[in-house]
Amino acid sequence: MPVSVLTESDFVPKTPEAAREAFAKKAALNSAVFERLSTAAKQKAFRIAGVNNARLIQAVRNRIAASIKRGTTWPDVRREITRLFDVAGEELPSLGRLRQVFITNTQQAYNDARRELFEQERETFPFWQYLTVGNGVAGVNGVRATHAALHGLIFRADDPFWLSHYPPWDYNCRCYVAALTPGQARGTGQELRSLGYARRELKIGPNAAFERSGEGELKGIDAELAAALSEMLG
Length: 234
Description:
Layout: H1 16-24, E1 27-28, H2 31-34, H3 39-42, E2 45-46, H4 54-70, H5 74-88, H6 95-120, E3 127-131, H7 145-148, E4 154-156, H8 161-165, E5 176-180, H9 182-187, H10 195-202, H11 221-233
Parallel strand pairs: 1-2
Antiparallel strand pairs: 3-4, 3-5
């Protein structure tokens, strides 16, 4: 019997473990090594800008992974990370920067876990819809106008749009994606857009300063990351 109805809970990780596993796959690299990676490899790596202590970076990565699993709040994570920097004898970056690292990476982890499920069911759900936490209204729940303008747009799962705009594609992005069957896509009443539409009509491009840029070309990334880790750890 073909699947025709998809609820949001079907594609939300049943436990935070799926998100933790997605995050734990990221290689912990110092800034010097990270900057030499290809764009595609960078999205599979974890770094703290300006920090080059390899053991410290790995420890912070592990603390964030544990917090995803436990559902720890930022104040608790902040205290743990502050202690790690104290023990390492390293200067603590601004709390604003650390909070940005925490929010961005946890959001990426949950969306990466969702995307893995979407990819597995792409034959049944070949369309993806872009959604915001503000229901498409700029300013609601802090949603930016550039993100609100994408709310509701539907693209095929293999459309190049997702290479640059699969959430999160900018700092503090809390947008998400819903997977749709062809019938569900038609039932939304939304036009099935193309990348040309998004660029021509909305003139929305990714933040050049944001490291994530979608899946990109994944061939050879594991080898590249392995070489980077080997270089960093000597």
